[in-house]
Amino acid sequence: MTPNSRPLSPHLQIYRPQLTSLLSILHRVTGFALSFGVIALVLWLLALSVGGEFLSNIHSFWGSIFGKFFLLGWTFCFSYHFFNGIRHLSWDVGLGLEIVTVYKSGWTVITLSGISTLFIFWLTGGF
Fold first, then answer.
1. What fold is seen in the domain 20-123?
2. pLDDT, tens digit, for every residue of 116-127?
């Protein structure tokens, strides 16, 4: 077979997005975004150890609208990645693999992530 005569597999342009594919992509994206949150956490810990003006600048950044938006997004990423990770662990032991259960658990992960993000942000005084 020549390379041009091989059949091509349908790609994202052919398939319509499904909840399962979107949640899988979101799990990867939130995992990547958590790395930026870890960098921010390390900077904050560094500011705590140094103190002075650096700590003051970090605290004023976290108090700004952009800083609060970053913290809200990072909290959502953490919550979503946590709950979806539990979902994946249940799949690893063979639980919840039926298509109906997969969709129910997907919506549950989204709901729990949103509720826990708002609760954590409210509890810590983010609003």
1. 3 helical TM bundles of succinate and fumarate reductases (1.20.1300)
2. 999 999 999 887
